[in-house]
Design a protein that fits this description.
This protein has one domain: FAD/NAD(P)-binding domain (3-Layer(bba) Sandwich). Helix content is 33%, strand content 27%. The protein has 12 helices and 14 strands. The strands form 2 sheets. It has an 8-stranded mixed β-sheet with strand order 3-5-4-9-10-11-8-12. A hairpin with a 4-residue loop joins strand 10 and strand 11. Helix 9 crosses helix 12. The structure holds flavin-adenine dinucleotide. The site of flavin-adenine dinucleotide has 31 residues, from helix 1, strand 3, strand 8, strand 12 and helix 7.
Length: 362
């Protein structure tokens, strides 16, 4: 009798950043996964513009170059960030240099997820209603890439460190395509942050994001939003028109205790890719997808490969907890301190100052 050969067949649940990065890497190594996406197309969610900031992804300085050269994953950003203006209530610091990139997400034609989809040959099963359990029984390996912690909390211990409310909109006006503005100001983002990312010279994405802590429940989101719009009007000095807006509630920032359970790999936000300090998760999401694929292909051990991301997560959480202790007066001092050479060094230098600071904090 012929021996039955045990075959590796991989299901990827979720065709977002982590899932598609996993698919590209598996294909590169000779495995064609089956991809299950619950929506009717890749990126079928609200349109927004996100950031890749070098200072937050050290030692990776240039994420676009890194993914192309090291992992054959090719991404085109929307623009290069050459200026970052950080505002507090009464201060502003301008930092210049090659600071990172802006990139589109969601429904935009050139969103990162749509760019990744073009690099995948395997079939994507859209409108999927397959449960994790069904996939687990049908495949030798499952990559859980659903972009939320629903399954992660079901199948492993998942520490939720905070949840965040985000409100955003696309506005019309005149913008410098290479300048991003960020605010640390409790008047519109209590214990959180706000930002303006240009999409084109005529369009920008504005967002406020703040944690859902009990002490923040007293705030009315519409009032905070109005305060932010007033600030935007003053800062950009124009009457702008607001277009599409979106709201995300209880966005989970947390980490699964185990990155791998049996032959299931938790990737992207299921793994704990969102760095709690300022909510950045794109680089870590792509990396976890790549690392899960490497493990399945025998090129490394997922737990070991992701160990640096786990350390980064904890350092980032320490920075967040410290930021939360600062009232507007202290944030003014912080932003004042970032003016001039200090800010330039922190954002442009080779050295990972944020890591050092997080290590020095109690
Ligand atoms: C408003 C906002 C702004 C952000 N800004 C930044 C930023 O500037 N910089 C940054 O680095 N990060 C940012 N982030 C975080 C970043 O977007 C995420 O970390 C990243 O997208 C997570 O990638 P992922 O692959 O885990 O999930 P996603 O890319 O969201 O993909 C998950 C996919 O799984 C699908 N799915 C869900 N459930 C199922 C199911 N049951 N079956 C099948 N498919 C399913 C979804 O439809 C989706 O296609 C932001 C997040 C938000 C919400």
């Amino acid at each position: 009798m012929e021996k039955e050969v045990l075959k590796i067949n991989v299901a990827i649940m979720g065709a977002g950043l982590a899932g598609l990065a996993a698919a590209i890497t598996l294909e590169e190594n000779g495995i064609n996964p089956s991809i299950y996406e619950k929506r009717s197309q890749v990126g079928d969610r609200f349109f927004n513009c996100e950031l890749l900031l070098s200072v937050l992804s050290k030692p990776i300085d240039d994420a676009i170059k890194y993914f192309a050269e090291e992992h054959k994953i090719f991404l085109q950003p929307q623009s290069n960030i050459r200026k970052l203006i950080i505002h507090s209530e009464n201060n502003s610091a301008e930092i210049t240099g090659h600071l990172g990139f802006t990139n589109l997400r969601g429904r935009a034609e050139n969103s990162f997820e749509k760019q990744l989809e073009k690099q995948v040959n395997s079939k994507i099963h859209f409108n999927s209603q397959k449960s994790y359990e069904e996939l687990l029984h049908a495949y030798s390996h499952v990559i859980l890439a659903t972009g939320d912690a629903t399954y992660a909390t079901k199948i492993t211990e998942y520490d939720v460190d905070l949840t965040v409310t985000l409100k955003g909109a696309i506005i019309d006006g005149n913008f410098d395509i290479d300048t991003v503005e960020a605010w640390l100001n409790h008047k519109f983002a209590p214990l959180g942050y706000s930002y303006l990312i240009p999409i084109t010279q005529q369009k920008a994405n504005i967002v406020i994001a703040y944690p859902d802590y009990p002490e923040n429940q007293k705030y009315d989101i519409n009032k905070l939003w109005e305060n932010f719009l007033d600030e935007i009007a003053v800062i950009i000095g124009q009457n702008f028109k607001m277009k599409r807006d979106f709201e995300v509630t209880r966005y989970i920032i947390g980490k699964s205790k185990y990155p791998r359970i049996g032959n299931t790999f938790l990737v992207g936000n299921n793994f704990g890719s969102i760095m709690p300090f300022l909510g950045f998760g794109q680089v870590a999401s792509l990396l976890t997808g790549i690392y899960a694929a490497h493990d399945i292909c025998g090129l490394g051990d997922y737990t070991e490969l992701t160990s640096k991301l786990v350390s980064s997560y904890h350092e980032s959480l320490t920075l967040r907890r410290t930021l939360e202790k600062l009232d507007n007066a202290k944030l003014d001092i912080l932003v004042k301190g970032l003016k001039g050479k200090v800010g330039q060094k922190v954002f442009n230098g080779e050295f990972n100052y944020l890591k050092l600071i997080s290590k020095l904090l109690p």
